[in-house]
Amino acid sequence: MNSPQILERRKLYFYTNTKDILQRLSILSASARYDNSCSSSGGKREVHPYGIGNSHLSGICHSWSSDGRCISLLKILMTNYCLNNCKYCINRSVNDVPRAILTPKEIADLTLEFYRRNYIEGLFLSSGIYKNSDYTMELMLKAVKILRFKYYFSGYIHLKLIPGASTELVKEAFRLADRVSSNIELPTEESLRRLAPEKSFSELYKPLKIVREIYDEKRLKAPASTQIIVGATPDTDKKILKLANSLYENKIVRRVYYSAYIPVNKDSDLPAILEPPFLREHRLYQADWLLRFYGFKLDEIFEEDENLSLRIDPKLAWALRHLEFFPVEITKADYYELVRVPGIGPTSAKRIIKIRKNSEISETTLKKLGIPLKRAKYFITIKGKPLAKFSQIKDLNQENLCLFSEKKC
Amino acid sequence: MLTIYYDGSFEGFLTLLSDFILENRPIDNIKIHNSIFVKSQNELFYEEVVSQPDKAKNFYCYLKRNLPREFFEKIYIYYLCDTASVELSLIKVLRQIEKNPNIWQDFSYDEVIKLHKAERSFYRERHRWFGFMRFIELPNRVLFAKFEPKFNVLPKLWTHFVRRFPNEKIIIFDSLRKLLFLYKERKKALIWVDNFEIEFSAHTDPFINFWKNYFLKIAIPERQSYERQRSKIPLSVRKFLPEFWENL
Ligand code: SF4
After folding, report:
1. Four-residue CA torsion sign, A78, A82, A86, A91
2. How many structural domains are present in chain A?
3. From the candidates B136, B223, B224, which should be mutated to test the interface with A, based on the most A CB atoms within 10 A?
């Protein structure tokens, strides 16, 4: 454990170098912010007797930044120097932006001190490619080793696997971290070739495959994740979700993150857009949840169109195409029938099943318990009685469709 | 209308329940207040329940013997939901439990719904403070945090921090209820105090500035949404979060 002298020395170091560290911290956190794959749930570490930290299974948000996103980890790059020239990335080699590097010890110390003050759940460490892939991965691993072996830190650590890093280093990263990831970035080889010429599908997959192989729990998805950029190429939602679905089915990753393309560079290969496709990103997340938690199949989501509707969410869209499935009887339906009802998610479905074991279900009970029925009421019956006129949804027109849309019409 | 005040301690809470359950006091036309939050206004009809440790203990044993275990364990949580005004609902449910042992899980009964909702928001509030609690390092390396939760979550919150930081010295102060938690070398104490002030200067902790800076830089400008941020971090808790403090 840390002796008082070490702690004092550390504090002194940060005092005397405040300005310089602040500057580098600014550069390296600003360059890390576009990576979306940052959640702290799913960790199971217990604290070391001489150490600090554990992780909370359900994940904890410590703050929300001004973009409304949860902050749970110190998300930072080791360095934003990069040899590669991915066209969508702010850190690409040809960009004239301020560059910085933090030492492994500085990263470890910042993580530990942020953690002690309960600012964060742990560390999310990524990096540009500095000198070469192995060298970069080793620098990152050094920071993690200081945390794990010197400070006995058992908090959450997410490590980005650097494409092209050797199998040994990937294995080591996986052993030390709670979660690892390698961003596939674009849904097709062709798009990748155009926008990230130094990268290839096989290189980006490789670390994920190594993790899959060494993860003991073969039945489960590996504790790895990936990110796909949405809207930088003409690829359709179906193409993107097909890729995600195959990653889930093959248990390669536990989560796929989608990231709306935000133009930060000018390049003739990049699309000119007025506004980043945030709503499209949101719809992809909704559809992704349908695949993972609602028992939907990919083909059910894309029965008519290759792209998700922006106007209504994919579950409502499915419900409107399948009115024959409704109404669902709340007092009898099983979990998978309940979650098909627009407005009823896994939490409400589980609550309904629990409540009806001991209580009579009525519209008032559900309302009083805070189970929202605003959307669900068109699709359900309670003890055979409809809560709204079912016929209302049969002849939907533009006007009453607004009833279901999240945005006010 | 009779207004009854109890002192906000668990013993006071149990003494109050005992009066109504074992001594069968009438519940019509009464109001119950926790005097930590609502002080007596010298109303025409008011009464103060004086905590009686023996009575409270006996009643606690009585509940343990007579309630289903799962429900018994919730009694303490209902006590901790101290601003939810659920005392009367609990009394009503407890009164019927002899006749109907399953009533505490029957959601067609309004009082049960009230208790259930309070319990859920208690755990939600506790979870929020897992994240929002902010420690400041005092010069002797003690970690100090002050907060004002909606419910009395500290008795169910400190274990989280002690488990996480077993080798730290920790002080947590609920300044609304004046409840203080102290921890050092595996010894701990949770005590009511009249007041507790610690003098510190945020300047002595360089990490506050690093954190504030990180907090600003990690936001994606193109996604700015103060509205969403506000819905997640109400203004009332911001005074406890250094990332919202004015520049030092
Ligand atoms: S390798 Fe990563 S950091 Fe480097 S340019 Fe590509 S996306 Fe950016």
Report:
1. positive
2. 3
3. B223
Q: What residues are paired with B146 via a beta bridge?
A: B173
Mean pLDDT to the nearest integer, A312-319? 94
Q: Same domain for A175 and A186?
A: no
Per mean pLDDT, which range of A131-145, A366-380, B5-19, B138-152 is the poorest?
A366-380
CB contacts, 8 Å: B137 with chain A: 116-117
Residue A377 domain flag? yes
Q: Residues B203, B205, B209, CA angle at the centre, nearest 5°? A: 75
Tens digit of pLDDT for each residue in B192-226? 999 898 887 777 788 999 999 999 999 999 899 99
The answer as to whether A305 is a domain residue is no
- Nearest Cα to A55, choosing from A66, A32, A39? A39
Q: A116, B165: Cβ pair inside 8 Å?
A: yes
Is residue A267 domain-shared with residue A330, that is, in the same domain?
no
Q: Are residues A290 and A344 in the same domain?
A: no
Residue for token digits 């490789």? A206
3-state class of A317 per DSSP?
helix
Window 10-29 of A, Cβ < 8 Å to B: 11, 14-15, 18, 21-22, 25-26, 29
A277 part of a folded domain: yes
- Closest-CA distance, A249 to chain B, in angstroms, reads 32
The domain segmentation of chain B, as residue ranges, is 2-124, 133-244
Report CA torsion sign: A208, A212, A216, A222: positive
Q: Is residue A303 part of a domain?
A: no
Provide the edge-to-edge strand list for the sheet that holds B30-34.
B30-34, B2-6, B46-48
Provide the token pair at A407.
Answer: 């945005």
Show the domain range for A342: 314-404
Determine the Cα–Cα distance for residues A6 and A312; give it in Å rounded to an integer. 57
Question: Are residue A29 and residue A134 in the same domain, yes or no?
Answer: yes
Dist. CA A64–CA A179, nearest whole Å:
22
The DSSP 8-state label assigned to residue B50 in this structure reads P
Closest residue by CA, ligand 1 atom 5: A92
Nearest to A364, CA basis, from A385, A340, A395:
A385
Closest ligand 1 atom to A80 CA: 3
For residues A253 and A174, state if they share a domain.
no
Contact A68/B163, CB-based, under 8 Å? no
Nearest to A208 by CA among A187, A188, A184: A184
The verdict on a CB contact (< 8 Å) between B207 and A117 is yes
Check whether residue A274 and residue A209 sit in a common domain. Answer: yes
Q: Do A18 and B209 touch (CB under 8 A)?
A: yes
Residues 6+ apart with CB under 8 A from A147: A108, A111, A112, A123, A153, A157
Q: Which residue of A has its CA nearest to B101?
A: A358
Q: Which of A92, A93, A193 gets mutated to test ligand 1 (max ligand atoms within 8 A of its CB)? A: A92
Least confident of A32-46, A109-123, A150-164, B137-151: A32-46
Residues B241 and B211: their CA atoms lie apart, in Å, by: 10
For residues A143 and A213, membership in a common domain is answered with no
CATH number of the domain encompassing residue A285: 3.30.750.200
The residue whose CB lies within 8 Å of the most ligand 1 atoms, and thus the one to mutate among A77, A101, A129, A184, is A129
User: B173: exposed, middle or buried (C-beta count within 10 Å: 0-12, 13-18, 19+)?
Assistant: buried
Q: Are residues A190 and A41 in the same domain?
A: no
